[in-house]
Q: What sequence folds into this?
């Protein structure tokens, strides 16, 4: 239910309609702000659509850092986040608290896993040792030859980001947030008493703006404040196999390779990382490498070809940009790299809280 309060008269623009921008828009609209979300393409059509949907601090967090703390906190928020969206949108969201198995095929790999698990335990990321016998019993499709053991991470999970983004879009609209697709913001002028958004057709005025355009964020010119911090696209390839349900009951990881299965049967294998700008062309050599890596972990996949393949652009930056940028009227929410889906709840919470705290100045 939309709340009343000082936010009712404050107009907020959000540049970017991916999972980050939509999550922030939902939170602000629920708090009574007048929200307009702009996307240069279609909402949820870029990194949010392409992401596999891992919610896996066990696979991402190794050492203590500001981002690792946010990732762990955001993972704890996810169950409520999904339940609230399902209730408000009346749409089902494929969300599986399935855990993750990380396997080792040499004593050196196993030793590295154990050392990493010790560091993670100190951060509050729990895992337990898994013997080859346990793997063969509970994960019968995993390669047995050379298996040295593994670790199981019970708190890792997956979500279907396409369903999540669809639900977010519907909820934003139900909360009276305006959504504009195929709308490219070319420049933002930050003044003392307003921000002016410029596009090909003219200008619009708001009280504040949030830049949440992922890898495209710093392509927006700004005036009145220093230039936005750099953002860089990192292209990732993924492949998918249409498989019988329950082929892969958990996330499975081996080195840089991961596999997970959505509720619709699509078994996803990934991923790659390439700094090639916004090149959307699929690279057949990288696809072949993914096929080989997926087939190594699950040998039955060697007997079939992927049913689909695609790419996405992860938003890389020197650091996660989360908060105001030289003005209480300009906020940044980008640089999430591989963890935009995981960090969506905490990003929305932090940005909305800061804007609310500054609302009397807007």
A:
């Amino acid at each position: 239910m939309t709340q009343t309060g000082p936010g009712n008269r404050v107009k907020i623009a959000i540049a970017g309609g991916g999972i980050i921008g939509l999550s922030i828009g939902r939170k602000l609209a629920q708090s009574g702000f007048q929200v307009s979300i702009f996307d240069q393409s279609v909402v949820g059509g870029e990194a949010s659509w392409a992401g596999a949907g891992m919610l896996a601090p066990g696979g991402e967090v190794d050492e203590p850092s500001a981002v690792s703390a946010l990732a762990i906190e955001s993972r704890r928020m996810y169950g409520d986040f999904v339940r609230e969206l399902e209730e408000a949108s009346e749409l089902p969201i494929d969300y599986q608290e399935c855990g993750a198995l990380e396997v080792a095929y040499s004593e050196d790999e196993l030793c590295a896993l154990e050392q990493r698990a010790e560091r993670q335990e100190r951060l509050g990321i729990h895992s337990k040792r898994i013997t080859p016998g346990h793997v063969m019993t509970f994960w019968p499709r995993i390669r047995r030859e050379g298996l040295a053991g593994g670790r199981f991470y019970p708190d890792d999970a997956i979500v279907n980001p396409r369903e999540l983004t669809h639900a977010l879009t519907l909820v934003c609209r139900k909360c009276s947030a305006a959504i504009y697709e195929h709308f490219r913001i070319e420049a933002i002028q930050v003044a003392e008493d307003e921000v002016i958004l410029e596009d090909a057709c003219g200008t619009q005025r708001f009280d504040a703006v949030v830049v949440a355009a992922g890898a495209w964020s710093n392509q927006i010119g700004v005036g009145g404040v220093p230039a936005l911090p750099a953002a860089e696209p990192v292209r990732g390839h993924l492949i998918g196999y249409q498989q019988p349900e329950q082929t892969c009951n958990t996330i499975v990881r081996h080195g840089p390779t991961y596999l997970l299965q959505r509720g619709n049967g699509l078994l996803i294998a990934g991923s790659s990382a390439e700094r090639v700008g916004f090149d959307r062309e699929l690279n057949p050599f990288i696809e072949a490498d993914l096929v080989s890596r997926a087939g190594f972990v699950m040998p039955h996949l060697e007997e079939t070809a992927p049913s689909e393949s695609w790419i996405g652009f992860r938003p890389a930056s020197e650091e996660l940009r989360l908060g105001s940028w030289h003005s209480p009227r300009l906020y940044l929410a980008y640089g999430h790299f591989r963890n935009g889906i995981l960090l969506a709840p905490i990003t929305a919470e932090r940005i909305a809280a800061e804007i609310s705290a500054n609302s009397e100045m807007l």
Q: What stands out?
A: Confidence is low (pLDDT under 50) at residues 1-7. Residues 192 and 317 are 28 Å apart (CA to CA).
